[in-house]
Design brief:
791 residues; Maltoporin, Chain A; five-stranded mixed beta sheet; globular
Length: 791
């Protein structure tokens, strides 16, 4: 039976929240309201598999970002932090983009959950009401809105120490709510700064990885009348990451050393030859390349050797407006939500290893700037007793490049030795092809093309625009038969997609002639949804659902000359089209035994056509998107919460997922019958939360166990692509110090299980360049957290 999880968050809500307040003597679970159909409804009455996680549970479980939640959700996979629902990975990428995320109805991939009302996870395609990229599901984060009648100050401080990490992670969050005009106007500000030091250390540079994430959210709420509200918002998000989270377990066995002999007669003043140095048997890359390193390494698993520490800097400024009118001329309610954002980013990628076999330094600097405008206008029926509910809306989304430079430059050192090595390794030395332009070494190419002898390649985006326009509608009719109610729902979304891409590339990887490409395309279509629900009572829903979803198509960069000989180059096309999802689902969810027990379950089958997948070309290191396959996913999901006595809540979530490629796909190394990468066959989560009195104060303890099945990260699987199954045990305790303050202690991975969250060999071949990436799960870590709220 197709039953999807629709209840309390990836684990049931915490004891105190579900029992109506800390220290409350209650034996039933509170009702949960969700906005899955873009109106407030009981989670039980929505014929869809939904998880809703309250603000209280997020705090109790020390969940700071949505990615902290994902691995406890039934039917979810999250190898590197992104969310994959119902097995829809489709290719070799750890971030396939098959789920969408919204914040207060705005498409926005923002993971912080400080000062939010709740997080809702909608499983299955959401193509009718939520639009594109929601083929696996949608995550909706609902923030707390300004309160016009209460002053409030709130804060949260935490510090985390972890095994084999020499530094402490810290997170400081604070906010304020100020009524500016009683019952009319209010301002709410929430801010956070977090530093997460990494465990991976580069023995070449001596640096550890480090992540810094900051945000500030401001909202101004104007209650014009009981029926009319305006909300003006601004969010500033900034990230600054250095280094990597990925360990490298590759054992190449040898490496190359350049042998340079002075020769004034050569263009760079040196002749070059190469020798091979054998590594000690079984030595890791770091042990082989830096055997006498004085860099302190907590554990050899976390030592890497790279010429550079990559970095990534990003910033987003988002402005929003939300207008709600609950009764427009006695006909309907109306809601408008619009947003405009500016995204900027820059990053450094180390290409010394892949392009130059570590013999001379080369690196890429990427810069990007974009703008995005989204708008949604929605009309819905007023509350009535007729049993008929309807929603009609219009949506627009446009993304385009900002005014700054968008693209990338590849650099190299300009001393004679480096020019000699780079010129020879790139095939320029002695080449009649490059010599026809009068260039005898790479510095001359850079000077001629860019006015800089230290640049060897450039990619410039002139235009990159995506537009989506849609009109959508959904209607449901409920009628009572005397033996319960039936609800019939139908929805449809008509959409138009348009995109243009115009860029130019030049340099050593392109050829003598610049490569200019202008591509574009349009698509249109519709996606439908039908459901039939039987509700014997307000506490039980048995439903059948059919839903469709899609991801928009787009354009690939042209095939670089250096990729022409790759075995997968023949699969490259300038354009890929949308893929489509058909989801068939049966579900049961309800509250039983005087609301002591809540269950949500589902069985589903998904047919996936024209699967979009990323194809990696190991010869040159580039990738492209292709419509690669036909596929199927089917499975079972269960989420449940049970009150035991008056102060204990037991949560159990579990899923089984079976995926299958239905056609051979040479470009992915996939054969008919192969399972999808990134997706375990099972995952499960068991938690118990118990409240009691300690020192005349309300206190709580929680224990939870998460189990995750084995999965691979690549078709054409090697042993190095397999992440074995694992289980982790977490313990926590919290005490209410006074009405305003809570102190909590969280011990995660109590048994210090050493497990892989992600494991992937970058290339199918072997050699000194090929990395074996390993993302280790968090080892035993302890967090001390203090929360304060004053009203």
């Amino acid at each position: 039976m197709a039953l999807a999880s629709a209840m309390l968050a990836g684990g049931a809500a915490s004891a105190q929240e579900q029992q109506g307040g800390e220290g409350a003597q209650a034996t039933t679970l509170d009702s949960v309201q969700v906005t899955a159909r873009k109106r407030a409804e009981s989670i039980i009455e929505v014929p869809m598999n939904i998880t809703a996680v309250s603000a209280q549970e997020l705090e109790d479980r020390n969940i700071s970002t949505v990615s902290d939640l994902y691995r406890t959700l039934a039917g979810a996979a999250s190898p590197t932090g992104g969310l994959i629902l119902r097995g829809l990975s489709g290719g070799n990428s750890a971030s396939p983009g098959t789920t969408s995320q919204f914040v207060d109805g705005i498409p926005f991939a923002f993971g912080e959950v400080f000062d939010v009302e709740q997080v809702e996870v909608l499983r299955g395609p959401q193509g009718t009401l939520w639009g594109s990229n929601a083929i696996g599901g949608t995550v909706q984060v609902v923030t707390r809105k300004p309160q016009t009648d209460n002053f409030e100050v709130f804060a949260s401080l935490s510090g985390t120490v972890e095994e084999n990490n020499p530094s402490t992670a810290t997170r400081t969050q604070a906010g304020i709510n100020v009524p500016l005009l009683q019952d009319v106007l209010a301002l709410r500000v929430a801010a956070s700064t977090a530093r997460t030091p990494g465990k991976i250390v580069n023995v070449k540079t001596g640096n550890y990885g480090d992540e810094q994430d900051d945000f500030i959210r401001t909202q101004l709420q104007w209650e014009v009348s009981p029926d009319l509200r305006f909300n003006l918002g601004h969010v500033y998000v900034r990230g600054n990451d250095t280094g990597t989270r990925l360990a490298d377990a590759s054992v190449a066995g040898f490496y190359y050393v350049p042998e340079l002999t002075p020769n004034p007669a050569t263009p760079t003043g040196f002749d070059i030859d190469y020798s091979v140095v054998d590594c000690p048997e079984g030595a890791s890359r770091a042990q082989c390349r830096a055997p006498n390193s004085r860099v302190k390494v907590e554990d050899d698993r976390f030592a890497i050797y790279e010429a550079f520490d990559g970095w990534n800097r990003s910033a987003t400024n988002l402005f929003s407006i939300n207008v709600e009118h609950d009764d427009l001329f006695g006909i309907a309610s109306v809601s408008y939500v619009g947003s405009f954002r500016k995204n900027t980013g820059s990053s450094l990628e180390n290409w010394t290893r892949l392009d130059m076999e570590d013999m001379t330094e080369t690196w890429m600097i990427n810069q990007d700037s974009s703008r995005r405008l989204t708008q949604e206008l929605r009309f819905q029926n007023l509350e009535n007793d007729s049993g008929l509910n309807w929603t009609v809306g219009f949506f627009q989304d446009k993304t385009w490049l900002g005014g700054e430079f968008n693209g990338q430059n590849q650099f190299h050192n300009t001393d004679p030795q480096s020019l000699t090595i780079f010129s020879d390794m790139s095939g320029l030395t002695g080449s009649s092809y490059w010599g026809s332009a009068g260039w005898t070494h790479i510095g001359e190419l850079g000077q001629a093309l860019y006015g800089n002898p230290g640049i060897n390649y450039n990619l410039t985006y002139n235009t990159d625009t995506q537009r989506e326009s849609a009109a959508f509608g959904e209607t449901s009719y409920r009628f009572d038969t005397g033996a319960g109610a039936f609800e019939v729902t139908a929805g449809i979304r008509f959409y138009e997609l348009e995109d243009t891409l115009d860029f130019t590339s030049t340099g050593i990887w392109v050829g003598l002639d610049p490569r200019s490409v202008a591509e574009g395309g349009r698509e249109s279509g519709n996606r439908k949804k039908f459901s039939l629900a039987y509700l014997p009572s307000d506490n039980l829903n048995i439903y059948a659902l059919y839903a469709e979803g899609y991801r928009p198509g787009g354009n690939n960069a042209p095939l670089a000359n250096s990729c022409a000989g790759d075995e997968y180059a023949s699969q490259h096309k300038n354009r890929y089209t949308s893929d489509t999802i058909d989801n068939y689902e049966l579900g049961v969810k309800g509250a039983f035994f005087d609301r002591r027990l809540r269950i949500s379950s589902a069985a589903y089958r998904i047919d996936w056509s024209d699967v979009r997948a990323s194809v990696y070309m190991p010869t040159c290191g580039f990738s492209f998107i292709a419509n690669a396959a036909e596929a199927r996913s089917q499975g079972l999901e269960l989420e449940s919460a049970l009150t035991l006595g008056s102060n204990t809540v037991l949560t159990f979530n579990a899923s089984y997922t079976n995926t299958e490629i239905l056609t051979d796909v040479a470009a992915l190394g996939a054969q008919k019958g192969d399972e999808f990468p990134q997706v375990p066959k099972y995952n499960a989560y068991l938690a118990v939360d118990h409240g009691f009195r300690l020192f005349e104060r309300d206190a709580f303890v929680r224990a939870d166990i998460a189990a995750y099945g084995e999965y691979k990260t690549h078709f054409n699987t090697r042993d190095e692509d397999v992440s074995p199954s694992y289980e982790t045990l977490n313990l926590s305790g919290r005490i209410r110090l006074n009405p305003e303050s809570t102190l909590s202690l969280h011990v995660n991975n109590v048994t210090n299980e050493q497990y892989y969250a992600y494991r992937n060999a970058r290339s199918r071949g072997t050699g000194t360049r090929n990395a074996l990436y390993e993302l280790w799960g968090a080892e035993r870590n302890i967090t001390l957290r203090f929360d304060y709220s004053f009203r």
